[in-house]
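ARCHIVE RECORD
Type: protein–small molecule complex
Small molecule: zinc ion
Source of inputs: curated submission
Record status: active
Notes field left blank by submitter.
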Amino acid sequence: MPLVNSKEMFEHAYKDGYAIGAFNCNNMEIVQAIVDAAKECNSPVILQVSAGARKYAKPAYLKKLVEAAVEDTGLPIVLHLDHGADFEICKDCIDNGFTSVMIDCSSKPFEENIAETRRVVEYAHAHVPYVTVEAELGTLAGVEDDVKVEFGKSSYTRPEDVEEFVKRTGCDSLAIAIGTSHGAYKFKPEQCTRDPETGILLPPPLRFDILDEVSKRLPGFPIVLHGSSSVNQEYVKIINDHGGKLVDAVGVPEQQLRRAAGLAVCKINIDSDLRLAMTAGIRQHFEEHPDHFDPRQYVGDGRAYVKQLVAHKIRDVVGSADVLDPVTKEFK
Ligand code: G3H
Ligand code: 13P
Ligand code: ZN
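STRUCTURE (tokenized, with ligand):
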């Protein structure tokens, strides 16, 4: 099966109350960990590439890695551009085999966001085969590429804007801001309460009222959540127990993401949790085997941790396990 766009995946996900995990990839081991987990779980998957990933690994390498993943697993896989800043980067990805792109003009004024998104949609939809386009309304807090949005400067999506935006742009899915945030430090301690027993921060709940209002206004339309790492504390503990220093790292609780996946949310973006799992595996390896110097040993452990994490996300968070026939890899 060749790379696919996200259209059919989202139709199934919406109808059957789950989401597709969109995992960021930056190197071979991360790609392998994600698709091995997806294969084990009989799940479709989105592999997404940021501008930072393109700079780090070079687009040609990433594309070949993803093609190898398709050949190796036979799964339906989307190759998606994450946070495309303008028409040019989206066009470059479309011209070079991406099956889905995100145009992120969420920090621009409404009319500018509409105009640039519309331009990308026209180009992507004219492409054969059709390339799907994700757009964004509202601003998440946190860090993505070199852009840091201060906590006070983030803004929730205004439900009253979404119908006009989708109608005028023709986008295929919409990322909204309901309280998720990029990175491993999603909330400041003063935004959270602290569990008196464990000392772990408990974040404020997501704004499900906004998600409900948006989905009422856009029936059947796929919604996307960025910034959806949960910063699983078992990995933070492994990192900190093996020489790391991550203080008050906190994410979005997994049960809230599971709930969102059962509603209109069809794509859930996870990057930071993979970074934490990789770091935990490598740190632990180094401490347990100070004599090792073969990267296959320690990066191999990092890859195994990422695979375990992704399998958990697919089964217990986005809920897309076993939606594919294990033999044909078609949706059941
Ligand atoms: O949304 C941001 C992603 O986590 C990508 O991060 O720009 O460091 O690759 P990056
Ligand atoms: P996290 O930083 O929460 O993993 O979010 C990743 C993301 O939204 C990529 O676009
Ligand atoms: Zn994002």
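CURATOR ANNOTATION: The chain has one domain: 7-181+206-230+251-270+296-318.
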